[in-house]
Design goal:
The structure holds two protein chains of two kinds. By secondary structure, chain A is of the alpha/beta class. Helices cover 22% and strands 31% of the residues of chain A. Chain A has six helices and twelve strands. By secondary structure, chain B is an alpha/beta fold. Classes of the chains: A alpha/beta, B alpha/beta.
Chain lengths: 223, 347
């Protein structure tokens, strides 16, 4: 008999209900939601049971009909080039949602780079964005996924940092440049980071250097 | 343009058989090649003298021998050595050799950099730069001065072994097979932060010892030290371990770095005893050697000893790991980071 842990990580077939390219080489793939999940949780996905599954944050709201994840196509990758070509009605294998990257109602900063926006977008789509400030860092302006929606919902609490396109609209530089330029950071706030390991480590070091207690910092890493 | 050839060093016997089949060579050639790769101290295909010239030429068209010498070594006053290897353009990995009476332990890296982002780790500050192949892992043992004397191997260097499990398992197969180095798996320990699915596969497919980086039994505290706690809570890791039989020769241990005022209190002792209840295991307490930008410090010796005694009183066999090589960059990741920064400074 399988344990609950094994069940949680075992893969089950689902039919794709949508697969949309929202930016060059960046897709949102969806399937029908079968149960509850907490915004911030992840799922494992593979297109072929012979290949090791990859972990992705859910980016859809917890009351929506479908579960969606955001992924970018990694050239030469085993999963994403194939996944990007798949059509509604085709089969993929997914795990149950798991993980505990979730926020309470206290004041917090959400800090993401690239597709690391996904868990925060899920929290916003689930209506959990009170007292939250979102910093999104990307290289090019077309990587501000869901920008219109986020702008509408979060207003001035949505800060876009763009390191390579200098367009006068977004903050010109990396997230660390933006944070470095702030005179001080609220020490009682919580800070949630999601993105590549190096960004997480650099931002965390900077927050600590600016006086934020490390116990207030939580990170979701890609692996 | 020079073609990059695939290394033969690091291939399993099964892979070598496939190579010989693909090249139209007799299958027994695979055994001969394995013998040259893993049992003899040669470094080129040319030296495989019981293979015909034609066979060697066929191999050399597609393959390199694949071993890699050290580029730097630091020697500590206590005999510990830190070796540096280059794996790619400007990518460095570290290997430590720790002599102790009649034992020679080698601490190998499994990745270049690391994705796991632990707050107290120097390697984390490099980010993730790439996976090591099985051959690059075994090479860290084979190409050091003490290769012939190695008695124990620990996968506790740079990187998270369970994030590169296929290559780690292959390297263990090479180290423990009769056609390879024929070491006992009981002399090999793989240390992980506890990626549950990979850990289950490791326990199924290998006989090597397991070490888990625990560092605090409390969920919220571990989240702020080790982001992996969000995906794979330590309670789940321990629940899974509880199902395995460690009463025989196979061991499980828990690594616990002590941080002053953070995880060295009686409450932690109590919770550790509760968490590990019923598991035949040991705890290795580790002194923290500060890394730049990290707001953590080690407690004093008295606190460390008291913490150890409290755990032993609770029935958990606990020891304090000796700090070795403190006069060199012995904390994992320090030397390679210094070397990379030095390269960057030179432009």
């Amino acid at each position: 008999m399988q344990s609950s842990i094994q069940n949680k990580h075992s893969l089950k077939p689902v039919l794709i209900t949508g697969n949309v390219e929202i930016s060059p080489n960046v897709f949102v793939i969806s399937w029908k939601r079968a149960g509850d999940f907490d915004p911030g949780q992840v799922v494992k996905i593979t297109a072929d049971l012979k290949d090791a599954p990859r972990i992705y944050s859910i980016c859809s709201g917890n009351r929506e009909e479908n579960i969606s994840v955001l992924f970018n196509v990694k050239p030469g990758g085993v999963l994403t080039p194939h996944l990007s070509q798949m059509k509604p009605g085709e089969l993929i294998y997914v795990s149950e949602p798991y993980g505990s990257f979730s926020c309470d109602e206290s004041s917090a900063w959400w800090i993401a780079t690239g597709t690391g926006i996904a868990p925060f977008y899920s929290m916003i789509r689930s209506g959990r964005f009170q007292n939250k400030k979102l910093l999104h860092g990307v290289s090019y302006a077309n990587q501000f996924y869901f920008e219109d929606y986020l702008q509408k919902v979060l207003g001035s609490n949505y800060i876009c940092c763009c390191s390579r396109d200098k367009n006068g609209v977004h903050f010109p530089g990396r997230i660390t440049d933006y944070l470095q330029g702030l005179p001080e950071l609220p020490k009682a706030d919580k800070y949630y980071l999601c993105g590549q390991a190096l960004m997480v480590v650099e931002v965390r070091d900077l927050l600590i250097q600016k006086g934020v207690p490390y116990s207030q910092i939580y990170a979701e890493i890609f692996f | 343009m020079e073609t990059i050839k695939e290394p033969l060093f690091g291939k399993t016997l099964k892979e070598l058989v496939q190579i010989t089949v693909d090249l139209g060579l007799p299958k027994f050639t695979a055994g001969q090649i394995a013998d040259w790769l893993y049992k003899k101290q040669i470094n080129s295909l040319e030296e495989m003298s019981n293979l015909s010239r034609k066979t060697r030429e066929l191999l050399a068209e597609k393959y390199d021998f694949g071993t890699n010498p050290t580029v730097k070594v630091q020697v500590s006053a206590d005999g510990t050595k830190k070796y540096l290897f280059v794996t790619g353009k400007h990518q460095f990995i570290e290997t430590a050799m720790i002599p102790d009476d009649d034992r020679v332990t080698v601490c190998v890296s499994s990745q270049v950099g690391c994705k796991m982002g632990c707050l107290f780790c120097m390697t984390a500050k490099q980010g993730f730069q790439g996976q090591l192949l099985a051959g690059e892992i075994v090479n860290q043992i084979r190409s050091i001065d003490e290769a012939e004397a190695v008695s124990n191997i620990v996968y506790m260097g740079m990187g998270e072994p369970f994030d590169n499990l296929d290559e780690v398992l292959k390297s263990i197969e090479i180290l423990t097979s009769d056609w390879g180095y024929a070491m006992s798996p009981r002399r090999i320990t793989v240390s992980s932060i506890g990626i549950v699915p990979s850990m289950m596969r490791f326990l199924n497919e290998s006989e090597a010892h397991l070490a888990i980086s625990l560092h605090t039994p409390f969920d919220e505290q571990r989240k702020s030290l080790m982001p992996v706690q969000i995906a794979y809570p330590i309670a789940e890791v321990v629940d899974e371990i509880r199902k395995w039989d460690f009463s025989g020769q196979r061991r499980v241990s828990f690594e616990y770095i002590l941080f002053k005022g953070l995880n060295d209190t009686p409450i932690h002792v109590k919770e550790l005893a509760r968490l590990l209840n019923g598991i035949k295991c040991r705890i290795n307490l580790i002194r923290f050697h500060p890394v730049p930008g990290t707001p953590l410090v080690s407690p004093d010796e008295e606190t460390i000893t008291h913490f150890k005694n409290q755990l032993n009183d609770k029935g958990i066999f606990t020891s304090i790991r000796a700090s070795r090589g403190q006069d060199i960059y012995a904390a994992c990741g320090l030397l390679s980071t210094k070397e990379q920064n030095s390269l960057k400074d030179k432009g």
